[in-house]
Amino acid sequence: MKENINDSSTTEGIPVAPAFGPALAAENMTKPRPLMNIRVLYLCFLSVLAAIAVGFISKILIWLISFFTNLSFFGRISGAEASPADNTLGLWVILVPVIGGIVVGIIARYGSKAIRGHGIPEAMEQVLTNESKINPTVTFLKPVASAISIGTGGPFGAEGPIIATGGALGSVIGQLLKTTPDERKILLAAGATAGMAAIFGSPLAAIMLAIELLLFEFSPRSIIPVALACFTGAAMHWIMFGTQPFLAMPNVASANGWQLVTYVLIGLVTGIFAAWVTRGVYFIEDVFEKLPIHWMWWPAIGGLAVGIVGYFAPHTMGVGYENIRAALSGQSTIYFLFMLCFMKLISWLISISSGNSGGTLAPLFTIGGAWGALLGAGIAMVLPKLGIDPKIAALVGMSSMFAGASRALLTSIIFAFETTQQPNALIPIIGGCTAAYFISFFMMKHSLMTEKIERRGVKAPGSFVPDVLDVVNVGDIADANAHVLSASNTVGSVKSWLSSGKPDTLQASFPVVLDNGDFIGMVRTRLIYNATVNPEDPIGSLINAQVMTIYPDNILKIAVDIMTKENLDVLPVVERANPKRIVGVVTYKNIMNAFHSNLAENDNKMRGLSIKRGGIKIVLLGRKLLAGK
After folding, report:
1. Per-residue pLDDT reduced to its tens digit, 68-107
2. Of 135, 183, 309, 567, whose Cβ has the fewest other Cβ atoms within 10 Å?
3. pLDDT in tens, 437-488
């Protein structure tokens, strides 16, 4: 006589385990995780706080750059804006960047080696290899070292240091508050991109920079905190630097068909130039690696190159945001543009390759803007009737240079639009940046941002595709033909059945059900083999009723999470409407097969694997019982 399953009783005289625990208790059943939860709100709060702090740090960094510029080139104590181009030092100007390089080398040697370079590759490496953990000292040393480097004539921008500093601050906050690696990654990206927004007042471009170069994902959990941080960073820019476009330029008219084609060609040629610029950076880096002196002295050598170039072309020294505006104005001379493009390129290539501290965005924009203006002027001279606007040509060159070198296509497009606020230039920018990205993709295996970390053996994601674990339901890959034991089987009979080789697939664990198909727990195969109980004891004496289960409509990521945390080889799948009814199992093999399947091309096939309750095979050793019958 069958007793009630919820009693600790028997079935046809055979004791079975009581049905209780997560497997059958509805309140403990695994539920889908909401995309928005309290942790996301917590991350948003921390991201905004980090962005406010980074906003103030950006103001301090700009002040420090001006302070060291005034001290180095004019011998005065002042934080007022100043340009090295106005110096009257003569030949002595050559020594100023050398001294700056020596100081930066000392800081890197005895402070933190992480301050070397332009910051973005270093942040990417920490995200990919070190659970987004950055040494707290970087938060303080990077802006100081960069301010000294730029303030003594280094041809860099302030945005790279503030991105690195903001990223370090976000990482440190995450480490102090015991967040997960994924949450630290979000905080790192939030701090870094808030810094970019605080310098340039370009929140949307900063968000895209996070997606393309730091987050390597696109999800509400990550985008919302980053977007709020970028909004806050842009608000801090308005408060501390004003509301005018960062790269204000004269208004431009809409382009016609042939003009658009020409701007696309300018972008294409700029993409080729960007590829060679990137190769130049790492070629010179390789040369420095072969020098028979400690790397601490390399920035001084780079500073010597900066000083020599700066003596002949003073405008190549320092941040040079005014040079970008000059190139975009359409009023610069050919000589000025030529010197700005090629002399700045030489100075920057040697200095950045030496391990000096500074950003790449401003130099690339300067070089690209001057290059585009030169191409535009040349085309206007040869084909005056075409009506090429040198201002648009400069803007296309500026954005295309960054798109080709960094492979951050969307960031480049949006940045050029946000910082100039020229809607009529948007279509030429899109065409030019896309052409530059296209040609760069075929000319370079890696980008300026990823080549360094790739050389260290760190693989940077080259594309963004949906995570199989997020888009596949458990029911789509679960094994509906798994063997299930009956509680009425004895331990001895199950051992004999396993030893006979009849099971077509030896499972690590077997679900156990009653005659009516109710699921009551799991039993491990090795436990059956090693059991020291009486062979006539029911298999139910070995089961674990406290077993986790999952629903067919849960995503695969939840299954992986449960199996990892609970150390499960087999995870039972039960009906949501009736958690006592098992409809399949999930194994690691099922999950690996899902990874190797082309879900798009095999959508119909995958949906054909949907679990049907009647497909479960129940081994009764002499009797047949189908779940659901």
Report:
1. 999 999 999 998 888 898 888 999 999 999 999 999 999 8
2. 567
3. 999 888 888 887 777 767 766 666 666 666 667 777 888 878 777 778 888 7
Instruction: Give CA–CA dist 163/386, Å, rounded.
Output: 41
Kindly report, residue by residue over 169-194, the tens digit of the pLDDT: 888 888 888 888 888 888 988 998 99
Residue 14 pairs in a beta bridge with 11
Residues 352-404: tens digit of each pLDDT: 888 888 778 888 999 999 999 999 999 999 998 898 999 999 999 999 999 99
DSSP letter for 131, please. Answer: T
* C-beta neighbour count of 312 within 10 angstroms: 9
Residue at token pair 């990077």: 142
Question: d(Cα 151, Cα 82) in Å, to the nearest integer?
Answer: 9
- Asked if residue 116 lies in contact with residue 296, where contact means CB atoms within 8 angstroms, the answer is no
Distance CA 225, CA 184 (A): 12
Under 8 Å between Cβ of 573 and 582: yes
Sequence-separated (6 or more) residues with CB below 8 Å from residue 94? 304, 307, 308, 310, 311
Dig out the tokens for 398 from the structure: 């500026």
Helix, strand, coil % in the chain, rounded to nearest 5: 60, 5, 30
**Smallest Cα–Cα separation from 611: which of 558, 580, 575, 561?**
575
Identify the structural domains of the chain with CATH numbers, from first to last.
Answer: 38-241 (1.10.3080.10), 257-292+317-455 (1.10.3080.10), 468-619 (3.10.580.10)
pLDDT of 510 reads 80
One-character DSSP codes across 234-287: HHHHHHHH-SS-TT-----PPP-HHHHHHHHHHHHHHHHHHHHHHHHHHHHHHH
Q: What is the pLDDT of residues 9-57, one digit of tens each?
A: 333 333 333 332 233 333 333 444 444 478 889 999 999 999 999 999 9
Judge whether 616 and 486 are in contact, CB under 8 Å.
no
Alpha-carbon distances, residue 72 vs 49, 342, 545 (angstroms) = 34, 25, 75
